[in-house]
């Protein structure tokens, strides 16, 4: 009974077979067919390899939504070198909530404003990447993919053999997530009930020099590998009373790649600078002012990859499409060749048939005469 059921099931399965089977004795091999098959196999191999590289490639997907996070703090990462003594400058952050951020996270370190040749080449390479970013927007996706949690290689260190002519201000600050103003001016700040003031009466005006270099400025979690718009910026001035202003628009960004997942921020910047001269109507305070505003939209940047099932479907489509296309082309070309050859053969056959008819009529006439 079991054998009968197995045979019956096997017979039923064989009857379901819908694929045509052509005996090998019915298949005629030809040189043209072999050539087309060889070209088809070569094309399939090339396209399959290219499709594999496409499968390995990933791309960045951008999504936009309203930022609903109002309670978190805005992290500001700062590394700025000012051409003044550390005792004569002070850095603070004030926001629209009329609150002053404590600057205990900043470190004032004596440094050299002039760069060594190695540092200068490092900065030039940084600026070249930024110039390419303004032209090639796809370069930002490459930087996102290269972002990592580990610290990136640091720039060449300063030469400590020379005298310190500047002050390097670096560290992190945590401000309220509202519009604010980060500024570096003359004198140390003193917090009062209605705000804060900078004591600059003890600083010699001749020593004022707000020439500066921004080695790094970013918002949110610092991610090595990502280059921001102000990194490597250098401004010099021979005038003591000079105001440098940077107007920054921050866009909250959530970055999710195969290497890193972090809450960072993108930003765009416009800048303006002028010499302070009350006699000419140019009022203001000498210093470096970075006024930032936060966008209400948030960007989600996600690295995506082609699913494996989609890769298989595309690969089967390539193989089947090439077999079908080359088969049809081979049939069409064979038909055209047969048509052209038949025409020539038909013309030659006409002459042969005429000769045969002449010979046949001649033989018939001879036989008739003999009779």
Please give the radius of gyration in angstroms: 40 Å
The biggest sheet amounts to: 8 strands, mixed
Structural class determined from secondary elements: alpha+beta
Outline: elongated
How many β strands by DSSP?
A: 15
Q: Strand percentage, roughly?
A: 25-35%
- Helical content stands at 25-40%
The H/E string reads: HHEEEEEHHEEEEEEEEEEH
Question: Stretches where pLDDT falls below 50 for ≥5 residues?
Answer: none
Any overview of this molecule?
There is one protein chain. With 371 residues, this protein is α+β, with helices and mostly antiparallel strands. It folds into two domains: 25-57 and 306-323, no CATH class; 62-305, no CATH class. It contains five helices and 15 strands. It has helices spanning 2-16, 31-56, 117-135, 138-146, 308-370; strands at residues 58-66, 73-82, 89-95, 100-101, 106-111, 166-176, 180-186, 188-192, 195-199, 212-219, 233-235, 242-256, 261-275, 287-294, 297-305. Strands 1, 3, 4, 7, 12, 13, 14 and 15 form an eight-stranded mixed β-sheet that branches. Strands 5-6-2-10-11 form a five-stranded antiparallel β-sheet, with no helix packed on it. It is elongated, with a radius of gyration of 40 Å. The protein starts with a helix and ends with a helix. 18% of the residues are buried. The mean pLDDT is 78.
């Amino acid at each position: 009974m079991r054998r009968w059921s197995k045979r019956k099931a096997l017979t039923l399965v064989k009857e379901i077979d819908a694929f045509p089977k052509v005996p090998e004795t019915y298949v005629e091999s030809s040189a043209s067919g072999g050539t087309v098959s060889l070209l088809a196999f070569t094309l399939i191999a090339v396209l399959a390899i290219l499709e594999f590289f496409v499968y390995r490639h990933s791309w960045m997907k951008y999504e936009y939504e309203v930022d609903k996070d109002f309670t978190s703090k805005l992290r500001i990462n700062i590394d700025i070198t000012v051409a003044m003594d550390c005792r004569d400058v002070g850095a603070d952050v004030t926001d629209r909530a009329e609150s002053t951020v404590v600057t205990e996270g900043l470190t004032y370190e004596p440094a050299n404003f002039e760069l060594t040749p190695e540092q200068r080449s490092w900065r030039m390479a940084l600026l070249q990447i930024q110039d390419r970013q303004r032209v090639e927007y796809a370069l930002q996706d490459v930087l996102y993919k290269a972002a990592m949690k580990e610290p990136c290689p640091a720039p060449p260190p300063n030469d400590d053999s020379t005298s310190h002519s500047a002050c390097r201000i670096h560290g992190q600050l945590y401000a309220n997530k509202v519009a604010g103003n980060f500024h570096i001016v003359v004198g140390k700040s003193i917090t009062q009930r209605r705000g804060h003031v900078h004591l600059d009466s003890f600083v010699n005006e001749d020593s004022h020099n707000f020439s500066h270099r921004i080695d790094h400025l970013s918002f949110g979690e610092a991610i090595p590998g990502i280059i921001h718009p102000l990194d490597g910026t250098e401004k010099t001035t021979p005038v003591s009373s000079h105001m440098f202003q940077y107007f920054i628009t921050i866009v909250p960004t959530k970055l999710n790649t195969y290497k890193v997942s972090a809450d960072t921020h993108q930003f765009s910047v416009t800048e303006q600078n002028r010499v302070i001269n009350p006699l000419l109507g140019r009022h203001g305070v000498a210093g470096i002012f970075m006024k930032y505003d936060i966008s209400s939209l948030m960007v989600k940047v996600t690295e995506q990859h082609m699913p494996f099932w989609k890769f298989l479907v595309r690969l089967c489509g390539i193989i089947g499409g090439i077999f079908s296309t080359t088969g049809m082309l081979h049939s069409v070309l064979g038909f055209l060749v047969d048509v052209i050859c038949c025409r020539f053969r038909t013309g030659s056959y006409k002459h042969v048939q005429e000769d045969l008819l002449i010979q046949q009529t001649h033989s018939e006439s001879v036989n008739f005469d003999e009779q």
